[in-house]
Each structure stands twice: as C-alpha cells, then as structure tokens.
Amino acid sequence: MAKPKVAFYWCASCGGCEEAIIDLNEDILKVAELVDIVFWPCAMDYKYQDVRNMKDGEITVAFINGAIRTDEQVEISRLLRQKSQIVVAFGACSHLGGIPGLANFWDRDTIFNSSYGSACPSVDNPENIIPQVISKVPEGELTLPKFHNTVKSLDQVVEVDYYLPGCSPAPYLTMKAIEKILSGDLPAKGTVLAPNKSLCDQCTRNDTKPEKLTIDKINRVSLVEVDPEKCFLAQGIICMGPVTRFGCSENDDGRCIKVNMPCRGCYGPPDGVKDTGAKMVAALASIMGLEDEENMKDNKISSLMDQIIDPAGTFYRFTLPVSMLRRKQGNDTEKREK
Ligand code: SF4
Ligand code: SF4
Questions:
Q1: pTM of the predicted model, to two decimals?
Q2: Would you say 250 and 170 are in contact if contact means Cβ atoms under 8 Å apart?
C-alpha cells in the first residue's frame, strides 16, 4: 500500500522549526518508515516543480513553518494548500506571526533602510542600493520575491487545518500530531494541537503566589538574583505564563521556567483569548494595586508601567500579526496591500 505523503516547508523563520523535526531524534526513523517525505527543501533536493506536478490533494499533510512576508512564501503556501489534504501551521511564526511579526511595528522602507541603508552604522552603501524585485544586469534580468510591508500568520493567507504551537514545537507534541493525523483520528478543524490550559495551571511555582499578590516594582530577569522556586510574577518579573498555553514541556512547568527564565509566551494563548498582549496587561494591572487609592494618588501605577522596558515587544513578542493591533497603523502601502 502506498504510504501517506508528507511535505515540510519554511517561510519567514529562523530555521528552529526545521531543527525541531531533527529533534525527533530516532523517532524520525519511525516517521520515515510510516510516510514518504515528498518535499522538504531545507533537507532534501526537491524542486517547486515536483510539487506543481502532483495531483491536487496528493500530499496527505503539509507542515508549514514561518510567517508570511514575501510573494514566494504566499505562492508556495497556496501551492501546498492545493496539493495537500491537511495543512498544519507548524511553530509560533506560522501560527501567530511570531518574532518576524514584530516587524509590523515598522514598515518595509524603514526595515530596508535599517538593513541596507544609512540607519545601519556598519553598512557602507553610498548609492543607497536596496534589493529590487527586478534588477537588470549585463547577463539579463535577475528577480527577487517581493518583500511585503506586513508580516502575516499562515492562516491569514491560506486555510489552515491544525496548529502546532511553539518556538519551536516540542518534539513529543510533533510526534503525537503525526501519529494522530496518520491514524485518521482527527480533532475538529482549527484545533491547536496542545493542551488547552495555561502554563500557570501546570507550573510548580504557582503555589508560591501569595493569595493576594501585589507588586511594587518591575524587575528585569538579567538584573536581579532570581529565586528558582518562586513564581516570577511574585518576584516582580514579567512572566507570560497566565496567558500562555501549556505544552512546551510534557509534564509540569515550561521549558523556560525549568531553567529559571520567565515564559515569553511562544505557545500563544489558550482558546478564547482574542489578544494576548491586552490579556497580559489586564493580568498585570490586577496585581499593581489599582484598588489602593494611595497608589493612584502618588502616580505609583504609571511609574510601575514606566519600568516595563519594551512593552510592545514584551506583550506581543509572538502574536502581533494576529492581535487586534496587527501592525503600525496609518501606512499607505499597507492599505494598498490589503
Ligand atoms: S507566572 Fe510564570 S512562574 Fe508564575 S506560576 Fe505562572 S508560569 Fe509559573
Ligand atoms: S516557557 Fe513559555 S516561552 Fe518558554 S518554551 Fe514554554 S511557552 Fe515558550
């Protein structure tokens, strides 16, 4: 009997999600036994034309990682959607926009200027040459994919069946997802393939939170001695655990908590949270002593808020493209691209 066909593809990402497949270790041999990998440009020499030559729906499942920011990524995501029965958004960038999505606080021109132009002190580019979609050279025409003004999650471009969250997805979750898909025992379309509870629910430090938690200082994890047993929030350190889905580790705690670092929120929110950043701001506000009139009088609250370095990057580190803010507003190019 023919084996199910599987494709892997990466869009705007760091490569960590490709590593996450390798991190299956010996389980990758089990996967290779069960399926035919028919497309994996990062690891095997397949061409886009190989996929174009397939019948629609011929691929059983395509795992697509990375956010979408170029024409090429849109084209290949659409192609894989057409050729696949199931599309899984693999990893935080594909699921939520991820770290590349923070670029939505700027626009294409600013990004090009900071990478290739005068805004980058180490760049020597007196003629201000920036990448062009078409460049004429003596040998002919060279083309590059168009770089979009706005970073998108995969489901803002094609229909997605399932989401495997995380930066990067934990190998045990990836293996479970593959087994589930191959068994045909599929959850409802749109399901995030990780437990639907918050990280705090499973965190062994949760019990160290006092019944009435109030903070009077925001601490940076790199500047204080962190108690390895105590809840980060109780130490005044921002931890996204209250608004982040559990699943990065198989049992308790999260991968970061285990190594004494606060959660940054890469698994995205549990079901029902519309805007992770707004939810975290509300969670923080609830422990800032807003009900105490003295605090309000002394301007203590705004001085506490001022202590949060990079609030946008803290609260929307992985979720800006799918948030209510979505991107920096008032940009004409963006309007044209919608
Ligand atoms: S806020 Fe962070 S450290 Fe505290 S219980 Fe939640 S996940 Fe654990
Ligand atoms: S603890 Fe938070 S940031 Fe760290 S891997 Fe888990 S979900 Fe991601």
A1: 0.92
A2: yes
- Nearest residue by C-alpha to atom 3 in ligand 1: 231
Ligand nearest the Cα atom of residue 244: 2
Helices (H), the chain: 16-22, 27-34, 48-52, 71-83, 92-96, 108-116, 171-183, 199-202, 255-258, 276-285, 293-297, 300-306, 311-315, 332-337
Residue of 202, 239, 255 to test ligand 1 pocket, by largest number of atoms within 8 Å of CB: 239
Cα(73) to centroid of ligand 1, in Å?
A: 36
Burial 300-329 (b: 16+ CB within 10 A, else e): beeebeeeeeeeeebbbbbbbbbbebbbbe
Confidence of residue 295 (pLDDT cuts 50, 70, 90): low
Domain harbouring 29, CATH code: 3.40.50.700
- Domain for residue 323, yes or no? no
Say yes or no: CB of residue 240 within 6 Å of ligand 1. no
Asked if the model's pLDDT at residue 333 lies above 70, the reply is no
Residues 162-195 pLDDT 10s = 999 999 999 999 999 998 988 988 999 999 999 9
- In a mutational test of the pocket of ligand 2, which residue from 251, 256, 319 has the highest number of ligand atoms less than 8 Å from its CB? 256
| Same-domain check for residues 269 and 279 | yes
Q: Across residues 97-104, what is the average pLDDT? A: 97
- The SS3 call for residue 47 is coil
- Pocket of ligand 2, candidates 19, 200, 253, 263: which has the most ligand atoms within 8 Å of its Cβ, to mutate? 263
Instruction: Give residue-wise pLDDT tens across range 134-155.
Output: 999 999 999 999 999 999 999 9
Q: If pLDDT is split at 50, 70 and 90, which confidence band does 338 have?
A: very low
Q: Which domain holds residue 17?
A: 5-100+150-183
- Between 337 and 128, whose confidence is greater? 128
Are 176 and 48 members of one domain? Answer: yes
Q: Is 256 in the pocket of ligand 1 (CB under 6 A)?
A: no
Ligand found nearest the CA of 238: 1
